[in-house]
Write a structure and sequence with these properties.
The complex is a heterotrimer of chains A (438), B (312) and C (358).
Chain A (H helix, E strand, L loop, with lengths): L1 H19 L9 E8 L6 H22 L6 E8 L4 H11 L11 H14 L3 E2 L17 E2 L5 H15 L10 E7 L2 H4 L1 H12 L2 E7 L7 H10 L3 E5 L3 H12 L7 E3 L6 H4 L10 E4 L8 H9 L5 H6 L5 H24 L6 H9 L2 E2 L1 H6 L9 E2 L12 E5 L4 E3 L8 H18 L12
Parallel strand pairs in A: 1-2, 3-4, 5-6, 5-7, 7-8, 8-9
Antiparallel strand pairs in A: 9-12, 10-11, 12-13
Helix pairs in contact in A: 2-13, 3-4, 5-7, 13-14
Chain B lengths: L1 H8 L1 H8 L1 H32 L6 H17 L4 H24 L7 H23 L14 E4 L2 E4 H23 L1 H11 L1 H7 L3 H27 L8 H12 L4 H26 L4 H15 L14
Antiparallel strand pairs in B: 1-2
Chain C lengths: L12 H4 L6 H21 L2 H27 L7 H18 L5 H20 L8 H20 L12 E2 L3 E3 L2 E4 L5 H24 L1 H11 L1 H6 L4 H28 L1 E2 L6 H14 L4 H24 L6 H22 L4 H14 L5
Antiparallel strand pairs in C: 1-4, 2-3
Helix pairs in contact in C: 3-7, 3-10, 3-11, 3-12, 4-5, 4-6, 4-10, 5-10, 7-8, 7-10, 8-10, 11-12, 12-13
The chains are: A alpha/beta (438), B mainly alpha (312), C mainly alpha (358).
Chain lengths: 438, 312, 358
């Protein structure tokens, strides 16, 4: 036993020494994208389809187009288990040649925002992360397009108003927000509070403690309050339990709207048939019927639809992964249009992200007709003010049930600028002058 | 400040008095939740009673048992056979644990054994995820989940059935412990390992039995919780919720687990619904522990726990 | 033969009572510290410094704190994460309110706040013992995390609820903030660890340490011979929380840069407890070795297949890592139930006798 232990220790030590001073090396003329994924751990049901979608789109570009303008795409996955410390370790390991990084966790995003300018790796936190990063004058290296939580909250209120027959009818209505007791869950609260004052609805805030495995008290309060509309900012097991509890207290599911991280297939699975009618926000296409999907089956899975299905093909989060990959690759392409068709550096990709102009015709070219809305990112606006729509679970699959809803920019943008200014002041950052830069 | 004080000392009571039916519903909900907690706590109690080990891996065992059951069902094995097979797996696991972890570490101090069960937790979680995958799995064993109204209070059928199952489980365990030979042997081992060996009670067999029973209890708890939230990784975090129950009831008492569970369940819910809004909500987590701690200050070994007499 | 102390005669009580009485010991510690200060910053790349060594040093400090409480004073505590959070938030509030105060002083003062909180939550230890106390400290853990989430004053009313370490310099060198190099931060963390390890070693060899150990071994007997359980237990909580608070502040300022309360949740408390138990309870060296094991092993296990050229999917790698890690813990415990520090001691004893077998 002792012998075995000492032998093992020696082997481990040797391997450790070899690794000590090494830095990862990359081939020339390859565009490297690190992928921080969480395929294990409590959030794996959400992390797996997202990662699969992203990787499949990259594979599609390599297989069908030979990469981006003949520069092959390379990527490496690093498992973070949604843990901030492991995320930092993954980032440090892979930042060497990174074109950009998708932290896929609000906690990790916050870590990386101060490091981005130093390491010259732009951050794309698509629809999550630090909402204030929408103000590009202060957050030069962080992008959160196509939309943010604050915008989504305002879009939800707009949708509810529409459903009630007009925004004036919101007066006196009761809105409740069930949120995960973390910075992520608290994101919509300021916006919803401001809108409550503006439109006269009553807002009740109900926090659910992490991890949210047990929510009886919250739902008893919902039962007592009897809100007209219920919003949810949940994550992980909290989603599944909440939907089940809502069904248990016979809450009308079509008045229950979840944020875009609470609206995937795995969230409605445990509740089964009783989840029918549950709604959620989204900002990209639903289902597997788009031209890009056909291409993926053809070029990546060589026609094997069953294998694609096993990889969460066509699921909500899979499409989100595709959306993310599309934005990132188009940004790199934009950079290449300016700097030349070769390997792009982090700084160049940052320029590409900031000047991304995805038009409707370009989307159609990519096989994404009606999958996403056109978007234009600028120096001031790293959010792009992308619209949101509502999808609904019909018991079998998700379906888009509303038109694209534009967020209330007049309410949200001043808040963003205020938050960004506070950050700038605390960290001695001078806002950029966008007009003087090109 | 006065607003805060009124919110703490006056408003909740007015609230309760003005809505007695709702209060009844909250209490009922608390009782149901408490029962679910006690199911997990029972596993801890069994193992601690018989081998003096605080089984940190109980949560992982709940997850592992549930995963095995659902995994088998997903592959088309009929329910009754899956249940039998899952029970078999847990018994095999008990054998394996006794052989590889308990036997080499016999007579070590409790911290070492605790750490060993921690290592076991990592191991079980890794194996469970490796073999059965990490997606959320629906657990449907045919328990009806309708709610119906009783005197104005909403009662969930599923929870009633869970309460019944827990009651049966506790009754069976109590009878086992008091009336059968093996139960007597268990109590003897819990009292004093060496004396029990001296009388001829085979320690190893007792340990395997206890860990198997705890495994089966974990399976039942896993089924109940898994049906509520889907079988997924977070299930192992339920153990954290069961700890205050354990402490309140006493680490070595089976009825204590139930009573503790009920008290914690009701306390948590009533606290969250009536006092929560005054201080910001989501107080359930620490409230349960504080409640347990308050009880501990009066009875340092839990309500029904064995008093440890120290001699100098 | 190498490790004999023949020829080393102590000529004063001071020499006799030194922490490292044998000259070879002093030399080895000196060499190790020298390597840590001079060689490692030069040869280690940024990944190693930033992602492996700095967290190791910080968690070693936290493990040291917990070991003082659990290993030396016998009070099992699972509130480590909460006390670290107190230190981090206290340091953040102090430095944002008084930006001109030297950052090193701020980091030390944050420990004082944590110590005060530790004393409050240590009060139940006068009545509750053993495993039951652990659960009482869990109340501290959950309550403190809830408090920092709830009371917006703690995170300066930031809408995101996250606190970010502002850039600060010391003697002209940038120590915190994104501009601070990994090398500088590593050296600061190393200095903190060495200083506090020295303090801890002296504490446990002094009267306070002996009262702690007496309470741990048999508190009724200790009370009879005149040791006051109240002051002893509370002093243990205070000191331990001080260490954990400083470690928490270092976590924010030197390692992560930005934290939300999730960074201090219950998993951190358990992690530090693992470090203490695996390393060896009641041993200063043990805390450091335990921290090394728990920090290095998972990273090593995740990267090992990649290093030897075998490519396996990341989720499989993580699952295998969990399995191997759990298995290794059990193996190490079977081999040496008293922790890795005991293995180290046995190694030293064998070295003394080498090349003779007995």
């Amino acid at each position: 036993m002792r012998r075995l232990t000492s032998v093992i220790s020696v082997i481990l030590a040797v391997i450790a020494l070899i690794a000590f001073a090494a830095t990862p090396v990359l081939a020339q003329n390859e565009q490297f994208i690190p992928l921080l994924v969480y395929r294990t751990g409590p959030y794996a049901p959400n992390g797996i389809p997202t990662a699969n979608g992203y990787v499949d789109y990259l594979r599609l570009l390599n297989a069908r187009d030979g990469g981006l303008n003949d520069v092959k795409l390379a990527w490496e996955e690093c498992e973070t288990k949604y843990n901030t410390k492991i995320g930092v370790e993954c980032y440090e390991k892979l930042k060497g040649n990174a074109s950009l990084v998708n932290p896929y966790s609000t906690g990790i995003t916050y870590q990386l925002i101060p490091k981005a300018p130093v390491d010259q790796v732009p951050i794309h936190s698509m629809g999550y992360g630090r909402t204030a990063a929408a103000d590009g004058r202060i957050f030069k290296w962080a992008f959160n397009f196509p939309t943010t939580y604050w915008s989504q909250a305002s879009a939800f209120v707009k949708y509810v108003g529409e459903q009630e027959g007009g925004m004036e009818n919101l007066k006196g209505k009761k809105l409740a927000l069930i949120y995960h007791n973390s910075p992520y869950g608290k994101e919509p609260i300021p916006t919803l509070t401001i809108l409550a004052e503006k439109f006269g609805y009553d807002l009740k805030l109900l926090a659910v403690d992490h991890p949210g495995q047990e929510q009886k008290a919250t739902w008893l309060q919902v039962r007592r309050y009897r809100p007209d509309w219920l919003f949810m900012w949940g994550w992980g097991v909290m989603n599944q339990v909440a939907i089940k509890e809502a069904a248990g207290i016979k809450f009308p599911m079509d008045h229950f709207i979840g944020v875009w991280w609470s609206g995937s297939e795995s969230d409605v699975v445990p509740a089964g048939a009783s989840a029918k009618g549950y709604k959620a926000g989204n900002f990209h296409g639903v289902g597997a019927g788009f031209p890009v999907h056909k291409d993926i089956v053809k070029h990546v899975y060589k026609g094997d639809e069953a294998a694609a299905k096993a990889n969460n093909f066509g699921e909500v989060l899979y499409n989100r992964g595709i959306m993310n990959a599309v934005y990132d690759t188009e940004a790199i392409r934009t950079a290449m249009a300016k700097y030349g068709k070769k390997q792009m550096s982090g700084e160049q990709v940052r320029w590409g992200l900031e000047n991304l102009d995805l038009t409707e015709s370009r989307l159609n070219e990519l096989g994404l007709e009606k999958f996403a809305q056109p978007i234009k990112v600028t120096c001031e606006d790293h959010e792009g003010n992308g619209p949101v729509f509502i999808q609904q679970w019909d018991g079998e699959k998700w379906g888009k049930i509303s038109d694209w809803i534009s967020p209330m920019r007049d309410v949200v943008r001043p808040q963003i600028e205020k938050a960004a200014a506070a950050f700038a002041q605390e960290n001695n950052i001078t806002p950029r002058d966008c007009a003087s830069e090109n | 400040m006065t607003e805060f004080l009124t919110a703490i000392f006056v408003t909740p009571f007015i609230d309760i008095a003005s809505g007695p039916i709702f209060f009844g519903e909250v209490v009922l909900g608390g009782l149901m939740t408490g029962v679910m907690y006690s199911m997990v706590a029972l596993g801890f109690v069994l193992i601690f009673k018989a081998s003096g080990v605080f089984n940190f891996a109980q949560g992982a065992m709940v997850l592992f048992a549930a995963l095995t059951l659902v995994g088998l069902m997903e592959r088309g094995v009929p329910l009754w056979l899956s249940l039998i097979l899952a029970t078999g797996v847990m018994i095999l696991l008990a054998f394996a644990i006794e052989r590889t972890v308990l036997r080499p570490l016999v007579n070590q101090d409790p911290f070492t054994l605790l750490m060993a069960t921690i290592g076991l937790t990592f191991f079980l979680e890794g194996v469970g995820e490796l073999v059965w995958g990490s997606n959320v799995k629906r657990l449907d064993i045919g328990i009806p989940e309708d709610s119906f109204e009783v005197a104005g209070m909403l009662v969930n059928q599923f929870e009633l059935i869970a309460a019944l199952v827990a009651a049966v489980l506790v009754a069976v365990l109590a009878v086992l412990s008091q009336k059968t030979t093996i139960g007597r042997a268990l109590r003897a081992v819990a009292d004093d390992h060496q004396a029990a060996t001296a009388v001829g009670i085979p320690l190893k067999t007792i340990w395997v039995t206890v860990w198997s029973v705890a495994g089966i209890v974990a399976l039942v708890a896993g089924i109940m919780w898994g049906a509520k939230s889907g079988v997924q990784f977070s299930l192992s975090l339920i153990a954290l919720k069961a700890l205050p129950v354990l402490i309140l009831g006493g680490l070595t008492s089976i009825p204590g687990a139930i009573v503790g569970g009920l008290i914690i369940g009701v306390g948590e819910k009533v606290g969250e619904v009536y006092w929560g809004p005054a201080i910001g909500g989501a107080i359930e987590n620490w409230f349960a522990y504080v409640l347990a701690m308050v009880f501990l200050l009066f009875r340092p070994h839990g309500l029904f726990g064995e008093e440890i007499i120290e001699r100098v | 033969m190498l490790y004999r102390e023949t020829g080393q005669f102590k000529t004063s009580y001071r020499r006799d009572q030194a922490i490292f009485p044998i000259a070879q010991d002093r030399w080895s510690i000196g060499i190790i510290i020298g390597i840590a200060y001079l060689v490692i910053p030069v040869i280690a790349n940024e990944y190693w410094l930033q992602a492996i060594l700095i967290p190791f040093l910080i968690f070693a400090l936290a493990a040291l704190g917990l070991n003082l409480l659990t290993g030396y004073a016998g009070q099992l505590s699972l509130g480590t994460g909460g006390f670290m959070a107190v230190g981090a938030y206290a340091a953040y509030k102090m430095t944002t309110a008084f930006p001109d105060v030297p950052i090193l002083l701020v980091l030390l003062l944050s420990g004082v706040f944590a110590a005060a909180v530790g004393v409050i939550f240590g009060l139940p230890s006068l009545r509750i013992k053993g495993l039951y106390l652990a659960v009482a400290t869990l109340a501290a853990q959950f309550f403190l995390i809830w408090l920092f989430n709830r009371v917006a004053w703690f995170y300066n009313y930031n809408p995101s609820g996250t606190i970010t370490a502002p850039p600060r310099t010391f003697l002209g060198i940038m120590i915190t903030g994104p501009e601070a190099t990994a090398t500088v931060r590593y050296l600061v963390a190393l200095s903190f660890l060495i200083f506090f390890a020295l303090v801890a070693k002296n504490l446990v060899r002094s009267e306070i340490g002996r009262t702690w150990m007496a309470i741990r071994d048999m508190d009724v007997a200790a009370e009879i011979i005149g040791i006051r359980p109240l002051t002893t237990k509370l002093s243990a909580f205070a000191t331990s929380s001080f260490y954990c608070g400083v470690a928490g502040a270092l976590l924010l300022f030197l390692y992560l840069g930005s934290v939300e309360t999730l960074a201090f949740d219950i998993t951190v408390s358990f992690e530090v407890l693992f470090m203490v138990i695996i390393g060896g309870m009641g041993s200063i060296m043990g805390s450091i070795i335990g921290a090394a094991f728990i920090t290095f092993m998972p990273i090593f296990l995740t990267n090992a297949p990649h290093l030897i050229g075998v490519d396996i999917p990341v989720d499989l790698a993580k699952e295998l890592e969990a399995i191997i890690f759990g298995g290794l813990i059990i193996v190490f415990l079977i081999v040496e139930p008293h922790g890795l520090a005991r293995l180290w001691q046995i190694g030293k004893e064998k070295l003394r006798r080498w090349p003779f077998p007995y």
